[in-house]
Description:
By secondary structure, this protein is an alpha+beta fold.
Amino acid sequence: xxxxxxxxxxxxxxxxxxxxxxxxxxxxxxxxxxxxxxxxxxxxxxxxxxxxxxxxxxxxxxxxxxxxxxxxxxxxxxxxxxxxxxxxxxxxxxxxxxxxxxxxxxxxxxxxxxxxxxxxxxxxxxxxxxxxxxxxxxxxxxx
Length: 143
């Protein structure tokens, strides 16, 4: 972010290694959209909507649907699903999921993640999330 708005400043910033260039003043919604785009690129995704089988998750609107029908999720369920969908096919430890849901500072009960996974399975289908015994969970890859 900068107040330097000349074309040469923007080109110089991008050529110097910036992923993006945002000139002040700006709208917070634009900043958020740009952050989502950078995050997508860093995860190797181009499309903003995440899909796994019949389940779709749109991080921009925080909307989740299954078979085209909206699904209401709690904030913790949503963050659990988002973490799993961003790393579809890769096992995530319970600790990594706890961090995705609560951040680094939070008192977490021992079965909290298991409860959210159970609720997600109930709402989205039993076979969507696989248990990796002794480690955590993985979103099943579907084609």
